[in-house]
Write a structure and sequence with these properties.
Chain lengths: 479, 451
């Protein structure tokens, strides 16, 4: 193994050097843990929001620290500290070491050359180097587009958050990784008033690209889309309550995959035997045309990831190949448990958290049907278009997603708009009821965030137009 | 060098030292040219344990500290927070923050909190610090986890049971250039379990039960919590969707709290001013049946949510939120109060108490001929602008005043504006330790979607 220069730049952000890292790792191994790692992280964030035509909030935040982990089999000891001088780091390491109770393990090896740098975050200038005025200009231009878009506009608010995250991982076996991860999220909400009726809606754009991604045409489309999503609400109604066919529109409908299958295939739940998909690898779970992927390799997407938060290279992981359950999403602990290679899915919210198997960018590949034929095939059902959130119980398999905008389908035609209904189903049942998959798969660029075990991480999702033959739709019962 | 098991929060050893740090940050801001500044120093320590199959699954120890500053510069305002507290870095952070504020626009509604709203705050001992929580050792924590896990595994159907324990200590101090000073400190202890059990086919229903308090003497017996988690998981076996129906909905105290908390979101002045509240224009109106009587009690002793001043520093007091179904107040901060021309009240709720109820879950269910008991939620959302809601549920059918078959994979859908007047009964059985103290609630005429 090549050894990194002890004065290597990649650790300079944290004012630590290789010998210090090795002493801290030795402290984490002093009671016999199998392995240990240090996860240094620094995040600088700028937020702006515009309300009533002026900047109503502006803030900056800096967060910096190290998470120290000692692992013994599938047991974890963890501590973090924000003070990156040696004494507090060693104290934290000794707290993590208490997961084990034997003699010290072998000393940490020399630090290798860090992996990373595949160009998945195409940014000309990092966000800290972009002047505040350029960010304000984007926020203002979106606000102006929205304010002038409809005579019924009563309120517009637009917010912006950019962050510059730098992580460096050092493990006792010499593994090293670093990653500089940019992120920008533009979010807007509008309220329209029409007589006595008031309706509001919101939407967001998220990216790991830089300033140049926020081009005029993209901002135009974003503003038009939000106005359309909101003005349609005045005509929207609730669907009838009960089971019916649901057509998922291309794009954000990937939320169904995230909830119905993604979480259930995170290997920690399977290692503990609490997922409905435990021991189902190799079984047919959907029709031939269904292939579902979780990948960190889509450049610029919110769910893109060069290396995971355990220093493993990210990858494209196939969850369902042509209808057959292919495998799980692994972190290092579960990969060891199953004796397979990690899938680069070990993620954490920050240095304050332990890594867990998590999704990145989850989507279904295109099938062969024409989107119009999918809708035409439905006698009475709904088309689900825009979503707010979802959830799953991975053991029972029940999952939900909340539809902000959609349409009734009657006799194969899209008729009246619907709004604000929850849809509930069961994961394996829903997969087996996917009966049509169209040829228009696309990723959604919304600011999706996945929560698990109290940790939030950014994710993306995508879907082709597809038909689930039956799900339970929230709605109104006949009197 | 710090010892391995710190008793006190990370950096500052007491509120006086914390206050000194907040004052220093205010000085940095005013020296850099701020006309007014507020700083808050916060520090916390916690220890979390998870135990599964008789072994510790994870130990997580944390010690954390941060400084936040709010700046008023030339009629402009911004806020900033950092965990990088090295003296030189902190000084640069605050100086840069003041410079950034100058690039913003003037906002006439962003003004310091008037002295009259903060200087006469109550002098009450909130009794939020328990030395017995700080004195917990690893053996105590392991004993709590063992008692929980043993009780939670006490059935052959159990596939996996995990016991959780966490204890912590938080303190903060706030200082402002106009002389405002205030501190707060509380301990916390919480524990619980998640249990997965075997069901028909591949289904592995899971349930959880957690409890927590500021004082060790206020938490229930760990074994009881483990048993309750197990009972809940077993009760979910064989759950299936029932036919869609309009029926009576009974909410357990645990299910009622998150459901009713959403109503408070529409009581925020910011939601009203931004035209995103279904309660806009309803102050003084009857918005619910006469059974709904809500108070906010910020000085309730031994609660982690209690506070003498709110997040803007305004003095807190007991407040009637909804009196016999009539909306009595909004949560008005100084910013949106200025925009609306309303007098500020407080920035948000603390301990919400339901008054005037009677009966427990069992007695309230016995009065329902046909309906559903909702024990928990799965996803869903509500629209604060219109009051519409739609949530996934699980629970039991109620037939002839008794709980019968378990149900799951169903939704309830409607509007808070229509539903609150149909609140038919309120119990008196809130979780003793909860901060949103909802008891059992009964609503009539609710739309359930199922098969």
């Amino acid at each position: 193994m090549k050894t990194a220069d002890p004065s290597a730049r990649w650790l300079h952000d944290f004012e630590v050097d290789e010998p210090t890292c090795r002493r801290v790792l030795d402290a984490a191994l002093e009671r016999g843990a199998d392995r240990a790692d240090l996860y240094f992280q620094r995040v600088a964030q700028t937020s702006l929001s515009l309300e009533d035509g002026i900047v109503s909030r502006a803030s900056t935040a800096v967060d910096r620290g190290v998470g120290i982990r000692s692992v013994l089999g599938d047991q974890t000891g963890f501590a973090y500290c924000e003070d990156l001088t040696e004494a507090p780091m060693r104290a934290a390491a000794r707290a993590a070491a208490t997961i084990a109770s034997g003699p010290a393990s072998a000393a940490a090896r020399g630090v290798g050359v860090p992996i990373g740098g595949r160009g998945l975050y195409p940014v000309d200038r990092g966000w800290p180097d972009v002047e505040l005025g350029a960010k304000l200009a984007i926020v203002r231009s979106v606000e102006e587009r929205l304010r002038s878009a409809d005579a019924r506009i009563a309120k517009v608010s637009v917010s912006w958050v950019d962050s510059d995250e730098y992580v460096a991982l050092v493990a006792d076996d010499g593994r090293a990784a670093s990653d500089r991860r940019p992120m920008a999220v533009l979010r807007a909400s509008v309220t329209l008033v029409d007589g006595a009726n008031v309706e509001s809606n919101f939407w967001s754009l998220a990216t790991r690209n830089g300033l140049e991604w926020f081009e005029e045409s993209r901002l135009d489309a974003f503003a038009k889309d939000l106005i359309a999503r909101t003005s349609i609400l005045f005509e929207a109604r609730r669907p009838p309550a009960g089971e019916m066919p649901v057509v998922l529109a291309a794009g954000a409908s990937g939320i169904l995959l995230h909830e119905a299958i993604g979480h259930g295939l995170e290997a920690d739940a399977n290692r503990k035997g609490v997922s409905i998909y435990a021991n189902k690898v190799g079984e047919r779970v959907a029709m031939e045309e269904v292939t579902v992927v979780d990948s960190g390799l889509h450049a610029g997407e919110r769910g893109a990831l060069e290396v995971d938060d355990e220093g493993n290279a990210s990858e494209r992981t196939v969850l369902i190949q042509s209808g057959v359950l292919e495998g799980y999403l692994h972190d290092t602990i579960s990969a060891k448990h199953y004796d397979v290679a990690p899938t680069g899915s070990g993620r954490r919210e920050s240095f304050r958290h332990v890594p867990l198997p998590r999704m990145r960018c989850t989507y279904m590949e295109s099938g062969t049907a024409e989107p119009a034929d999918v809708i035409a095939s439905v006698k009475n059902g709904i088309l689900a278009e825009n979503f707010a959130n979802g959830q799953v119980q991975i053991g029972a398999g029940d999952f939900t997603f909340f539809v902000k905008n959609g349409w009734l389908i009657e006799d194969g035609k899209v008729t009246a708009p619907i709004k604000d209904v929850n849809i509930i189903g069961n994961g394996p049942e829903a997969l087996s009821r996917i009966t049509m998959v169209a040829n228009d798969s696309k990723l959604d660029t919304g600011g999706w965030t996945c929560g698990k075990a109290g940790q939030s991480v950014p994710v993306s999702q995508g879907m082709p137009t597809s038909l689930v033959s039956s799900l339970t739709v929230g709605g109104t019962n006949a009197q | 060098m710090p010892s391995e098991t710190t008793i006190r929060p990370a950096d500052a050893v007491n509120v006086e030292a914390a206050l000194e740090r907040a004052r220093h940050a205010v000085d940095l801001a005013t020296s850099a040219g701020a006309d007014h500044a507020v700083a808050q120093y916060g520090s916390a320590r916690s220890l979390e344990l998870q135990q599964r199959e008789g072994r510790v699954e994870s130990i997580e120890e944390s010690r954390s500290a941060s400084i936040g500053v709010q700046l008023w510069v030339d009629g402009r305002y911004s806020s900033h927070v950092t965990t990088d507290l090295r003296p030189a870095t902190l000084a640069k952070f605050v100086t840069d923050a003041v410079a950034m504020t100058r690039l913003l626009e003037q906002d006439p509604h962003r003004r310091p909190v008037p002295r009259a709203l903060w200087e006469d705050r109550a002098d009450v001992d909130l009794d939020q610090v328990d030395p017995a929580v700080d004195a917990l050792g690893q053996d105590d924590r392991l004993a709590i986890c063992a008692a929980i896990e043993d009780a939670a595994r006490a059935d052959a159907a159990v596939l996996s049971a995990t016991a959780y324990h966490s204890d912590g200590h938080v303190l903060f101090a706030r200082a402002a250039a106009d002389g405002f000073e205030g501190t707060g400190e509380h301990t916390s202890l919480s524990f619980g379990a998640t249990v997965s059990v075997k069901d028909a086919g591949d289904k592995r229903p899971e349930a959880y039960r957690f409890t927590g308090a500021a004082h060790r003497a206020d938490v229930p017996d760990p074994g009881t919590i483990g048993s309750e988690a197990l009972e809940r998981a077993l009760a979910r076996r064989g759950a299936a969707k029932a036919p869609s129906a309009r029926a009576t909905m009974v909410l357990t105290p645990q299910a009622a709290s998150p459901f009713m908390r959403r109503v408070l979101g529409a009581m925020q002045a910011g939601a009203v001013q931004q035209r995103r509240s279904f309660l806009e224009g309803r102050l003084g109106d009857r918005i619910a049946s006469e059974h709904l009587d809500l108070w906010d009690e910020p000085h309730r002793p031994r609660s982690g949510a209690s506070r003498l001043f709110d997040s803007e520093g305004m003095a807190t007091k007991r407040r009637h939120l909804i009196a016999g179904g009539v909306l009595e107040t909004f949560f008005v901060d100084t910013y949106y109060g200025s925009k609306l021309g309303w007098a500020p009240t407080t920035t948000g709720s603390t301990n919400v108490v339901f008054a005037g109820g009677a009966g427990d879950l069992e007695s309230l269910v016995s009065g329902v001929d046909r309906g559903f008991l909702v024990a928990g939620w799965l996803g869903g959302n509500s629209n604060p602008t219109t009051g519409d809601y739609s949530f996934g549920i699980h629970g039991h059918r109620i037939e002839g005043g008794r709980l019968t078959t378990p149900v799951a994979e169903m939704n309830v859908t409607g509007s808070y504006a229509d539903l609150l007047p149909r609140l038919a009964a309120v119990g008196d059985d809130p979780e003793p330790w909860s901060t949103f103290r909802s008891p059992t609630l009964v609503f009539e005429g609710v739309d359930f979607s199922g098969s």
